[in-house]
Amino acid sequence: MTKKTADRAILALFIVMAVLLYISTANYPGIAKTTSAKYVRFLAVFIGLLSTVQLAHSLYKDRSHNRLVLTENMPRFLGLLAALIVFALTFEPLGFFIPAAVFIPVVAIMLGYRRPVVIGLTTVGVLLFVYLVFVKLLAVNLPGINF
Amino acid sequence: MLEHIAVVFTFSSLLTIAIGTTAGVAIGGMPGLTATMAVGLLVPFTYTMDPTAGLMLLGGIYCGAMYGGSIPAILLNTPGTPAAVATAIEGYPMSRKGHAGLALKVSVVASFVGGTFSVFILLMFAPLLARQALAFGPAETFLLALMGLAGIISIADENSSLIKALIAGLLGMIIAIVGTDDMSGSLRYTGGLIELIDGIDFMPALIGLFSMIQMLELAGMHQHEIDTSTLHKTQKREPLPKGIGKHIALGSGTGTVIGILPGEGATIAAFISYNLSKRISRAKELFGKGNPEGIAAAESGNNGCVGGSLVPTLTLGIPGNSVAAALMGAFIIQGMIPGPELFTEYADRTYPFILSLFVANGVFLLVGLGFAPYLARIALVPPALMVPVVGAFAVLGSYALNNAVFDVYLMIAFALGGLILKKLGYSLEALILGLILGPIAEGGFTQGMIIGKGSPWIFIESPIAKVMWVIIFLLLLPPLYSYYKNVHLGKEDPV
Known about the structure:
The complex is a heterodimer. By secondary structure, chain A is an all-alpha fold. Chain A has five helices and no strands.
């Protein structure tokens, strides 16, 4: 997808959002009708107007064909994203330490690091640091299984 | 004041400041990690700490990171932070010529002077400005929020056009309306999710937009070899060049003033100071080839931003830049709302925090003079190790504030959405500022409408409001002119 197309799609989305936001203010109850609703309308009108101007500018002036490149290395990018989501999903049932003990080495290896001793020491160091500083010293409540 | 000084000079406070500052220098020295990222990541953890100690820790990180970026910039031509780019222009050529020791010395002394001067200005003027804030009603509060947004939009550049910066700011304000409507108590735009009843907390957004995005970018980046040949050229001891004080003074003043302007960050301060220094220098021809005057101006400029950026943050609740926004978050979660109360009711926390910044400057001066060449090696930490460690802390930090896994999902969503917006030229600084200023703006707007009995004239009536509109206009004038010029010259849209 080109940057131009992605940008136009986002701007169109903002315009739709602005319209929906404006319409939604009709349902504001009581005093909110004359206060919060007006504020939301103010935001909706301005973002709608600005997005329209930018979209028109893009349609009439933008002749570029640059591709939208989110990253130079898509597998690693998606891998990190997937690892983060799995980390978040396992965070509640398993706590911080078990998912982190898997997340750090897996991501390091996925990103091309190949020194197991350094990876191991880094993982143990981070976990120990979190345990001593956040669990023991700061008494942060972490979910799930703790040690 | 003596009692506040006594709080700073206890063993535990000094240790906290020293740890924060040294950690800040190390974080600033790692390319890809910024002060905003470090402060944003640690704010949730300071929630359970003693408020004063927590703020001192974050203040130390801010000061240390601002200086730390210069070390790899000078020795490895790899700026640790964007604010150290100007330093690399002069510092690395000096290192190549065998003057790395002198470049590091100039950098740390200039950073110390710039930082100390700006904190002194903060200490002198913040309480006065905060007292003026007492005259502000809801209408002026609303305008203040707009002013903060106009400030960050005023730095819209070739990477983020004016309109897109405005859209990003408004998008942040729209995200901030999700949750419970204060006026009616009813829920709005929550999509039935109970996690959104209290709205979208800006900390997961901050961590996602400023920490996780950097990690996603680093993960997908081809790694380049860093030239380490200059690391062993740091031993030679040389005195500071004559006449360097003029450039340090120039940078300190410029950085502090730029820092005070909402939205103007350390990178801008460093470059403006560098350019001004070039103009007044008698050795203009040496700029770009290793002129210590350039390092002096750039470093005093970016460190001058530290105290400067905290002036509008602590007095008016308008963050001077994204690091100040993260620090403001730390104040807010401790129940300390920026404004006059910080200097009256919470004086026992605010003044020690400000005074601790003097100590932090002293700490990084000692660290820099003694260990800078060794700290440069931090820049050699491979991103493949840094990314999972920061990623783990980002997950932990997002969760810790509200003990909510939902905030971790929010953080990931903000990182991904923010990356797309960034690639399309939208300003993430404007987005986060909109998110922070949104509730302040809404509160001012809705209360103003009640007082004004539904008439919008209340936002123009008072003399203060009129002055604020003029300032908003002046802040928008340069980017408007630049936008007009681009359109007039038929320059392509940045995207």
